[in-house]
Amino acid sequence: MGVSRQLPYSTQESSYFNGANAITLTISQVFGCADSTALNFDEMATDDDGSCEYPCESGFTLTMNDSFGDSWNGNELIINGTAYTLDGVNDDGVSATVCVDVDLESCIMFGWNSGSFEYETSFSLMNPSGEIVFEGGAGSIPDMMGSV
Is the dihedral of CA 139, 140, 145, 148 positive or negative? Predict the structure, then answer.
């Protein structure tokens, strides 16, 4: 025969009460990107862990995401003839950020190769100033950018 009883507790996440005894937990160190100019700045970070990511110095910064986390399933974004994808081998299948070496003053061509589950894909293109110049997904791409 088991004996059970419920103990009162606080709604504060850091305090738990057991009768007259109280335990308070204080987390004093949170690792993450502590540089507010970085793309992945974490305002909760108290210690910079070296994970900060910055826009590419030239060309585009391409950030690719997969909402299900199982890669882009054969879908590919084509920029000037080069294919970019999340394959779960060269990345974690959830997201990746890469530099795309293109001359922003010339004509930039885009294409899309369809695979499975296109609706899970999304991406953004950022210029060296950190401005997002295009966001898309599920096969949506800009016609072209730059001058002909």
Answer: positive
